[in-house]
Amino acid sequence: MLRQNLQQKLLQKLSPQQIQFIKLLQVPTVSLDARIKEELEDNPALEDLSLANMSEPVEEYPDRDPDEDTFNKEESSSEEFDEFNIDEYLQEDNLNDYGSKYDQNGDDDEERKEMPIAIQSSFFENLQNQLDLLPLADKDFRICQQIIGSLDDDGYLRRPIMSITDDLAFSQNVMAEDEEVEDMLKVIQTFDPAGVGARDLQECLLIQLRRKDGQIPVIKKAILVVEHYLDEFTRKHYDKLEKSLNLHDDELKDIVNEILKLNPKPGDSNEVNTKQMQVIPDFHIRNS
Fold first, then answer.
1. pTM, 2 dp
2. Rounded to an integer, what distance in angstroms lies between the CA atom of residue 228 and that of residue 224?
3. How far apart are the first and last CA of the chain?
4. How far apart are CA 85 and CA 238, in angstroms?
């Protein structure tokens, strides 16, 4: 009768390397050298390191101070480093194959002009630099910093004054009133670029217009249009503007052109859109 049984066994098997290691442990110390020599004769892939070390050259002056050798090595390495010019390395790496081919026939005495790199601070760094120049109290300075940090990329303050007051209390432990934040906001609105810190488009345009000469009639009328008729202006209802302000066509054109010169996004005025780089020709053609 057939029966099926399930058994569980635990077996341990040794690898050939383990078996060989155990055999070496069983060999006495006296016979170990003879066993190693036999293995070296039977297996040509093995190498005796003791024989390899014998080929090293003997020092000419064994009594010499080892610190002197270390000093000489450091001095020689420093001389090699001094001979290496990083400018030549960078210059050679930037040259393409086409340019290097013609540089071999160029004038060696001609000075190589370096490409200028424009370095410009960001919008928020510019505002912070202007803030650092003002003699403000510590509390007012921290309020202004909070306002600058609350501006968006367009330079507008989209957050309510009450939210900024709460942020000052919870994050910086500065207890300020809404009126104090309003006063410091007016300080920020005097910064460059003009229009920064405005809460909407109308306030942004008015800040820029009020920085101009208010005695000019066109500026006065432009302020009037932005302050009271901005909705008609944005919808291009010029007929209503002419009737409401008793303007002629030429006067209205001057007012429209003056308003169109303003920047609706003062935060973008500090961004570098294009890189101004000097063009370096690959070669020069001269009349002989």
1. 0.53
2. 6
3. 114
4. 68
Distance separating alpha carbons of residues 48 and 227, to the nearest angstrom = 97
Q: Is-cis flag, bond preceding 44, omega within 30? A: no
Whether 172 contacts 180, CB under 8 Å: no
Structural contact between residues 157 and 167, judged by C-beta atoms closer than 8 angstroms: no
Question: What are 37's two structure tokens?
Answer: 């020599």
Give pLDDT tens digits for 219-267. Answer: 999 999 999 998 888 888 888 888 888 888 899 999 999 999 999 999 8
- What does each C-alpha distance from 130 to 122, 136, 146 come to in angstroms? 13, 12, 15
**Total Cβ atoms within 10 A of residue 172:** 14
Q: How far apart (Å, rounded) are the C-alpha atoms in residues 248 and 241?
A: 10
Spatial contact of 122 and 153, defined as CB atoms under 8 Å apart: no
pLDDT: which is higher, 248 or 65: 248
CB neighbour class for 209 (10 Å; exposed up to 12, middle 13-18, buried from 19): buried
Distances (CA, A) of 117 to 110, 274, 278: 22, 12, 9
Q: Where are the domains of the chain?
A: 123-188, 201-270
Average pLDDT over the chain, rounded to an integer = 77
Kindly tell me the sign of the dihedral angle through the C-alpha atoms of 241, 245, 250, 253.
negative
Residue matched to tokens 């005097």: 190
9 vs 119: CA distance, rounded Å: 75
- Phi/psi at 72 (nearest 5 deg)? -65, -40
Q: pLDDT, tens digit, for every residue of 154-183? A: 999 999 999 999 999 998 888 999 999 999
